[in-house]
Write a structure and sequence with these properties.
With about 575 residues, the chain is mostly helical. It has one domain: Sodium/glucose cotransporter. It has 20 helices and no strands. Helix 8 packs across helix 16. The longest helix has about 50 residues. The relative contact order is 0.18. The N terminus is likely disordered.
Length: about 575
Amino acid sequence: MRTPTYFAAEPLAAELRLPTNWLDYTILGIYFVVVLGIGFAARRSVKTSLDFFLSGRSLPAWITGLAFISANLAATEILGMAANSAQYGAYTVHWYWIGAIPAMVFLGLVMMPFYYGSKVRSVPEFLLLRFDRGAHLLSSLLFAFAAILISGVNLYALAIVVEALLGWPQWVAIVVAGFFVLAYITLGGLSSAIYNEVLQFFVILAALIPLSVLGLKRVGGWDGLTDSLTKARGDDFVTAWGGTGIGSDNPLGANWLTIVLGLGFVLSFGYWTTNFAEVQRALSARNLSAAQRTPLIAAFPKIFIVFLVMIPGLVAAVLVPQIGTADSDLQYNDAIPYLMEQLLPNGVLGIAVTGLLAAFMAGMAANVSSFNTVFTNDIWAKYVVLGREDAYYVRFGRLITAIGVLASIGTAFLASSFSNIMAYLQTLFSFFNVPMFVVFIVGMFWKRASMKSGFWGLLAGTTAAMVNYFVLYKQDVIGIPTDQGANFVSAIAGFVAGAVVMVAVSLFTAPKPAEELQGLVYGTVSPGMAEPPAPGDEAWYRKPALLGWGAVILAAACYIPFSF
């Protein structure tokens, strides 16, 4: 074993500024030209609202699969997960191997036939078919609000990089970045977003791989990294399950039960199966088989991406032991920009900056494009202006995209108040995604769930999660050591409250007629869900079950090195 190397805190400049030169800016400029070019090219294919909002349901599985993972590979992955690693250590692997892969497999194998077969344009529209207009309107409003908040997180993360790159004031960076994303989404709709996301996926990898490799080299390799962290933070900081026994202390502030139930089941399934920013990519696939394979294809790179975002966060925790505390000028969110400043030579720095900007634009574009779809189709077209020609809704979709970006600029300043944006994102997911998931799961597997139960389940789940976080946790009524631990408990509270209220309401209200549940409840099939097999369906990579269980087994195997 290598002799461990320990690092003292390095003196930090009052302002984090990346040492870029003409080569870096040239690389960045070329990328922006390509992004806008894709937007102009995609504009020619937008003729109907289906083209604008769902790419005409015409894209192959490999395109939608890469877009699916790229849409998630944004602030959540890059700054957020690196910040998470700097603060909590190797526990970050839980967000991937139990907090993503099983839910992505469930989405592909179980839920996509319901989404795609029912021909809905959005997740809330499915609730309209399964429950009633009350559940549909409430879920649409909650989703639209959440999409703007999450889009603001991505915009704030993007502004951190622009601020470090150019030295602009943060508010200027936020406004400029927001209007650039507005340009290419407004031009080409979802197709522009998806094709740019495929490009962004490879650019992001080109940014993260050298940063991780050079970071490991700086701290003496993996052995030097783990030895340094063990000495400074304790043994549990570099393990996945160490100290997670009930009643034990650990850096994450959560035990195995809240990790498995709160993160692995409720938060994970709530995000991956009901977040329309992700589901929208699968709905744009050319057929049901391609739609099912979309999240399964995305699951394989998801297994390994954890290393590219966790290692920089761990390296930052070694190089700057006081990161995120009052003794340092750096927040946890600054881990990636700090390593870029310290480690990357010009040229590679330009690629890394381009990759980060690509990641944040992908995340913001995913949320803005899902926001414009839900607001246009599920709110405006169904409750405000009904029965207009298709071209009107395309024009309105472009207008609401601009409004969504402006609103995201406002919520970006809210995100700036959090030292760890991952904790902020998980709080939002517990408030908005978890209640929607419980309504979906009960409605899909229980025929007796009544039409009225959807609305009251959503309301109860959202209220319970917020009460747990803002009242019980923030007012110290119950003792939870960390924000992330509180998020796990909030998610469990929201799920349980939503399920209990749905069962109670269903017992006293009328169920939906059986003939209206075909294709909406597990065990029923509608004609629209059946389709002839695509040519070559006998190939292993066209079999969703094989792809899905292969991803689960591989993710489970990855836990072995981090379990001791």
